[in-house]
Write a structure and sequence with these properties.
- It is built from 6 helices and 5 strands.
- It is an alpha/beta fold and 172 residues long.
- It has one domain: Rossmann fold (3-Layer(aba) Sandwich), CATH 3.40.50.300.
- The protein has a 5-stranded parallel sheet with strand order 2-3-1-4-5, with helices on both faces.
């Protein structure tokens, strides 16, 4: 069975989680069965695996477990918010979601917008690290990040961004 999967990728602060949650509303409005999974939450545990600084393996193991529950309840497609840095990383998503037909939507925003969003959101110890990581990711994803299509998020309403991405993916 084929499972459409739309991964919303991009640097820290670009709006992955917010856009994915807006996609949830847009798909509900169209009566399209789906799950929205903010994969960052699935990897929040300590200690991280050796050689896995972003706890990717834990997040993907948890994705496989949760996906089995969604599939058993009739959910037949998924929106996943998570940075995907390389095409090779998609194999683990295909393993976690059997039959996954993956599209990657890379969200982009200017460096100033990314920095401002991180500043507004991160008030704790991680601020400097996350700003630095955001700008590094923006650059590296531009060069080598997988993307079936790109959507600009700067200065745009969430609904507009989500509808553009879902339309480009062929879901609406």
């Amino acid at each position: 069975m084929s499972v459409p999967v739309l991964i919303v990728s991009g640097p820290v602060g670009v709006g992955k989680s917010s856009v994915a949650h807006e996609m949830f509303d847009q798909l509900i409005d169209r009566d399209i069965a789906h799950a929205v999974i903010d994969l960052d939450a699935f990897g929040i545990s300590w200690p991280y695996g050796e050689g896995d600084p972003y706890n990717e393996r834990m997040a993907l193991r948890n994705l496989a477990s949760v996906w089995a529950n969604y599939a058993a309840s009739g959910v037949d497609r998924a929106v996943i918010a998570r940075v995907v840095e390389a095409e090779a990383d998609l194999a683990a998503y295909r393993e976690a979601i059997p039959g996954a037909e993956i599209q990657v939507c890379r969200l982009v925003a200017s460096a100033g917008v990314l920095t401002e969003r991180v500043r507004r959101r991160e008030v704790g110890s991680s601020y400097d690290v996350l700003v630095r990581r955001s700008l590094e990711l923006a650059e590296s994803l531009e060069v080598s990040g997988p993307a079936d299509f790109v959507v600009e998020t700067s200065g745009r309403p969430l609904a507009e961004i989500a509808v553009e991405a879902l339309t480009k993916a062929g879901w609406i």
